[in-house]
Each structure stands twice: as C-alpha cells, then as structure tokens.
Design goal:
Layout: E1 2-3, H1 16-21, H2 24-27, E2 31-35, E3 41-43, H3 44-61, E4 68-72, H4 78-88, E5 92-96, H5 102-112, E6 116-119, H6 124-134, E7 139-142, H7 152-155, E8 173-175, E9 178-179, E10 187-192, H8 193-203, E11 214-217, H9 224-236, E12 240-243, H10 249-259, E13 263-266, H11 268-276, E14 290-293, H12 300-310, E15 316-320, E16 327-330, E17 346-347, E18 352-356, E19 371-376, E20 383-384, H13 388-394, E21 401-409, E22 415-420, E23 425-427, E24 430-432, H14 434-441, E25 447-456, E26 462-470, H15 479-487, E27 498-501, H16 515-521
Parallel strand pairs: 2-12, 4-5, 4-6, 6-7, 11-12, 11-13, 13-14, 14-15, 26-27
Antiparallel strand pairs: 1-18, 2-3, 8-10, 9-10, 10-20, 15-16, 16-17, 18-19, 19-21, 21-22, 23-24, 25-26
Helix pairs in contact: 3-4, 5-6, 11-12
Length: about 525
C-alpha cells in the first residue's frame, strides 16, 4: 500500500458554499471573478452577497432541501454565484454540458430528477425542449435575461429572507456531475459537501495559492476538474479567477497577457497549442509561473516542449476522476523541477493507493510493477445515484475505488499511468462512453452490429472509432453517412471521427465486445 507523504487533513465538515466563501469578508473588495471577454469584475464581497440574495430568491421560488437544480451554462462570472446560491438553498447541483443535445440533457434531467434549471438565453431553446422531454421541471431561470423567464440578475433585488438550511455535509449531496465511470452510460456521481470540501484541503499543501494569484478558467466549470481547480480552489483562498466561455487560442493568449495570469490549469490539447502554435510568440506570457495539465494523458515530450517555449518549470500533471471529487495525485508546485518526465504526480494528503495485479486482483504489486490503480480516501464518492450495483462494482467493501487505470509507482512515489482497463474514451478531456455510441449506431437501419473504441489521431487526441457491420440491405453504407448519423444526435465531442467496416464484431461467449482484439487491428 502506498500512502501520501503529506500529513492527513481533518475532514472539512462544512457546506461547500461556506468552505469556499467562508473568508469572503476577509478578501472584501479584492477581485474574485473577472470576465475575460469584457472585463466585468465581481469582488469577493459581491460574490458573497449576490449568492446569498439569489439563494433567498430560489427558496422563495420553491427550491427546497433535497431538490436537484441543473446548471446548464458555459463558463461565466455568474456560474459560481448560481452554484453556491443553489447549494445554500439546499439543492444539489447537477452540471450539464452546454453542448448537450436536448435529448441528452433530458436524460440527465430524468435520471437526476431535477426540478429546476439555470441556463443562459442562447441555450434556452435546448433547455426548454429538454424540460419538455423530461417532465418534472418546475421552472427555468436564466443567468442573463430572456422574456418569460426569471433572471438571476433580477433576483439580486430579492427581499426574501436568506434560507437557513440544515445541511449535513457528511451525507448531503452538493454536486451531481455525470460520469461514465470505467464503462457504460453516464451516471450521476453523488459528491457530498464534505467530500468536495475535504478534497480542496487535501490539494492545498501541494498546490498553494492566495491573494494576488490569477488563474485562467477556460476549462469548463461543469466538469469536475474545472469546478475544483478553477472555481472552488482559487475562490477558497482569495485568488482571482479570469473566466473565458470557451477555448479560442487568440482570446486565451490575450487574457494571459492582459490579466497577468500566474497559473494555468489545462488539458493536453492546450499544451499542444502552447508548444507549437506560431501565435504564442505574439503575446507576453511572462506573468505565468506554472502550467498544470490533467483530464487526459500528456506526452512527456510535448510537456517538455511547452515548458521550454514558455521558459517555465516543467509542465506538471495531476490525476483523478469525477468519482474522486476529483483529485488524488498532483506534481507539487515546489517539486516541478524534481518530477520525472511523464509522471501524473504524488499522492495528495490523506490518500492511500494500491497497485493490484490484473491477473489476480487480490495481489498487491510493488515499486515498478504495473497494475490497476486503486484509491481510498475521504474524497471517494458517496456512490452513483440510483445505481447501487454500479457503485459496488466500483468501490469494494474495504472502501477501495477501482479506477480502471493501469499504472506503476517509482521509488520516489511518483505515479505513471500507462494504460487503462476501462473502456472510456477521453476526447480532449471529455468522457465518451463507447456503449452510448454503440447503442446509437444500432438504431441506424443500415447497421447490423457496431463497436466503438478510442484511437489516437495525428494530433495525439484520443477519438472514437466505430467498427461497423453493414446490414445486407445496405451494402453501400458509407463512412460519411455513419459519421453524419451520429453527429446529428450527439454533442460535438461525442462524434465518431473514424469508421472501419468489418464482417463481424469480435465478442466473447457472454456477448461482451472484445475491444482488445479491435485495438490490435488498428
């Protein structure tokens, strides 16, 4: 068993809004959130006051403890305010990909039993259609303004009393992001107030920040990585978060330059752009002190190229998953020069790890031996919403979460992730479940059978490749037709990018797709 070198941290027994904004009065007029596109700035005092007023208005509208509110928005300065207002009103927040189709959104609404939606006016048609398909949604609020919908801006004038909700941080769910786990369709991950808040405390010794530090939030808040690294963590310690709604390279580089960004939390495609794109040379990025990459594997040579170009310490990596609130490993800021290339970091405080044999899961492996990574700690999720079997398949009776990733640890305690058991595809950090795409492909009248795996393209991104068996009645079914059929029905990041036609999908006697055989043919 491997244990963290950091001292254990006591569990943080606070609602997430108190754990993050508890020092807001101390930070006062310091900038908490800045819109990187138009400069709109909210101070810590404003974020604290605004979220309390919106919580009062939500409670007055009927939001009650135990309700689920769907937050459906790209990154804006309103997103954190809406999130903390909802939790202060007693709701759990299920975060929704802003590019989700109405059908995908409706599935999440139904599964989570969400009764309320907060969205933005450009996404209102999708939200309305999703609510109509799902049923059970009482009201749709908007962050900006839209005729016929109450706005969070108007809620700031609410004179209703601030709700005094008795939240149990140990058992009450704060966030309900959706994850495919190691396989299968997306499932609601129940993360309690204590799990999320304690994970922030676990990360702090390795990734310290404070007033004067500025981070650029271009990775989405709806994803647990962004929610933790770019929203909760910096706001907890008085740093400034500069918010961008999406990744546009020129806008991203301009924001670093103009707002004197000190820290970047990114995914590998952004590291690639920083390392190789000619536009980088046109901007002053000298304020940067560090870059950390997570959400997908980062090539060690690419990381080195990025750090050389920016004249920075080596790019650090972090590791975790939604089911782990999400962090378990990170390269500490004070050890970036010491970390071996390609490592995803060391165990954070209060976290234990085992590496177990793939052939004998009861056999623990030692230094340098590759096996499945198991994690135990206070950040392990409460479970999957309404799916006890899936929960027990993921977390064993001793509390070990089976990540589905294959890795090994060196003598210095550095973890290297080398492969994965799980079938999940990570396209630019976003989860794509093969089973979801396979089920969709089988609805095409010209497809007799299908399997999907992740393959790496020329840019180093893992993309979905479909192996398709044509129906005898559709001998001329083309690659383009298959890709278009999927593209019209899923969010852009889930699209099939490659198609290979085969005579039969390899399957075990149980019917399970033998994906390893397909990988061997690529």
């Amino acid at each position: 068993m491997f244990r963290s070198e950091y001292a254990d941290v006591p569990p943080v027994e606070l609602p997430i809004h108190e754990a993050v904004l508890g020092r807001a009065a101390e930070f006062g007029d310091a900038p908490a959130l800045i819109d990187g596109t138009d400069g709109t700035t909210l101070s810590y005092e404003q974020v604290d006051r605004f979220h309390r007023r919106i919580a009062a208005a939500l409670a007055e509208a009927g939001v009650r403890k135990g309700d689920v509110l769907a937050l459906h928005s790209p990154n804006t300065v309103a997103f954190p305010t809406a999130f903390y207002a909802a939790t202060r009103a007693g709701a759990s927040v299920t975060t929704v990909h802003p590019l989700a189709t109405a059908e995908e959104f409706a599935k999440q609404l139904r599964d989570s039993a969400a009764r309320w939606i907060v969205t933005i006016s450009p996404l209102l048609d999708i939200a309305r259609r999703a609510a109509e398909l799902a049923g059970g949604v009482r009201e749709i609020f908007v962050c900006d303004s839209a005729t016929g919908h109450r706005s969070l801006i108007d809620m700031l004038a609410s004179a209703a009393p601030e709700p005094q909700i008795d939240i149990d941080p140990v058992t009450d769910v704060a966030a309900l992001p959706y994850s495919s786990g190691t396989t299968g369709i997306p499932k609601g991950v129940m993360l309690t107030h204590r799990q999320i808040a304690t994970n922030l405390a676990q990360l702090e010794p390795a990734i310290s920040a404070g007033p004067g530090d500025r981070v650029l939030a271009v990775l989405p808040f709806f994803h647990i990585y962004g929610l933790t690294a770019l929203m909760n963590a910096p706001l907890r310690v008085g740093a400034t978060v500069v918010v961008l709604p999406r990744f546009d390279l020129e806008q991203f580089l301009a924001a670093i330059q103009n707002h004197r960004i000190t820290g970047l939390y990114v995914a590998p495609p952004i590291v690639l752009a920083l390392a190789k794109h000619p536009a980088v040379a046109q901007y002053d990025l000298s304020s940067l002190k560090y870059v950390i990459s997570a959400a997908a594997p980062l090539d060690a040579n690419l990381a080195a190229a990025c750090s050389r170009r920016l004249n920075l310490p080596p790019v650090g990596q972090a590791y975790g998953m939604t089911e782990l609130s999400p962090g378990t490993h990170v390269v500490p800021l004070d050890a970036m020069h010491d970390a071996p290339p390609g490592t995803v970091g060391r165990l954070i405080a209060g976290t234990e790890m085992r590496i177990v044999s793939l052939d004998d899961p009861d056999k623990d492996l030692g230094v340098g031996e590759a096996g499945e990574i198991l994690i135990r700690g206070p950040q392990v999720m409460k479970g999957y919403l309404g799916r006890p079997d899936a929960t027990s398949a993921m977390i064993d009776t001793d509390g070990w979460l089976h990540t589905g990733d294959i890795g090994h640890v060196d003598a210095g305690g550095w973890l290297f992730v080398v492969d994965r058991v799980k079938e999940l595809i990570k396209y630019k950090g976003f989860q794509v479940a093969p089973a979801e795409l396979e089920a969709l492909l089988l609805t095409h009248p010209g497809i007799a059978d299908a399997a999907v795996i992740g393959v790496y393209n020329e840019d180093g991104n893992e993309v979905p490749r479909a192996y398709v068996v044509r129906q005898p009645s559709a001998p001329d079914l083309s690659e383009g037709e298959v890709m278009m059929y999927v593209a019209e029905r899923v969010a852009p990041y889930k699209r099939v990018r490659q198609v290979t036609f085969i005579d039969a999908v390899p399957r075990a006697a149980s019917g399970k797709i033998l994906r390893r055989q397909l990988r061997e043919t690529t």
